[in-house]
Amino acid sequence: MATVESQTGPTVLRILLGAQLRRLREAKGISREDAGYAIRASGSKISRMELGRVSFKSRDVADLLTLYGVTDEDERAALLSLADQANTPGWWHRYNDVLPSWFEVYVGLEGAASLIRTYEVQFVPGLLQTEDYARAVITLGHADAPVEEIDRRVSLRMTRQRLLTQPGTLRLWAVVDEAVLRRPIGGPEVMRGQIQALIEATKLPNVTLQVLPFSVGGHAAAGGAFSILRFPEPDLPDVVYVEQLTSALYLDKREDVDHYRKVMERVCVEAEPPDRTVEILSRILRET
């Protein structure tokens, strides 16, 4: 079985390198179009590089460093080494057959995050799902997929969960709508097993779980589920992840992140406090 990397993964390394290249370009007052011309590419390619959305060719990075006036050999070597590391496939590379590119970015960010705050309105957060529950959820979204594909998707989700128990542990703060716990995904037995697993998860020191009860009525996060990821690297801003049916949004502009952060804080205040979670889960378990 593969071991999930605790160190910074290639996704974050690409973002860090892209941010450094952007700073160097802007310091010289060079446009994206001119930078693209220097490496026989377009301005949009430079934009994707600076956002960490594509892999890096060492020759392109070397040419850009020359264009940006970086002549110090140690600085050049460090950035070129970062480019090589950023191109190293992550552990999830072996799941490429079932991992869409838009979600591959999230898996990389998730593996490098120090804190994930998430609000869920329909399903238990993926990092807290049991295998049976995960299989039921995945089957709902891929009803026509063969059993082998479903198995691989479930395996990917279970492997991601090791982040919660390995060294350099990720901290997860999840708020789930009461509807998540009342909806019998996979049937009553699967749901009972899932609720029992959530009770066990609350014992982990790095997991905080809150329930947003129906009695709250309307609330700030009525727009749907989202996650906010924070990283230990000071150069990386928080990222808001909003998943759609066939794609996802990754928001890192300060105004967007601030808006979602305020919504998350309000939801945490409106939800039942964490010390009541086991009591609520146990009650629902008795009723299931």
Automatic annotation (TrEMBL):
UniProt cross-references to Pfam families, sorted A to Z: DUF5753, HTH_31
Gene Ontology molecular function: DNA binding
Matching SUPFAM superfamilies: lambda repressor-like DNA-binding domains (SSF47413)
HTH cro/C1-type domain ranges (all copies): 21-76
InterPro entries, per the entry: Cro/C1-type_HTH, DUF5753, Lambda_DNA-bd_dom_sf
Superkingdom of the organism of origin: Bacteria
Alphabetized PROSITE patterns for the sequence: HTH_CROC1 (PS50943)
Entry protein name: XRE family transcriptional regulator
Source organism of the structure: Carbonactinospora thermoautotrophica
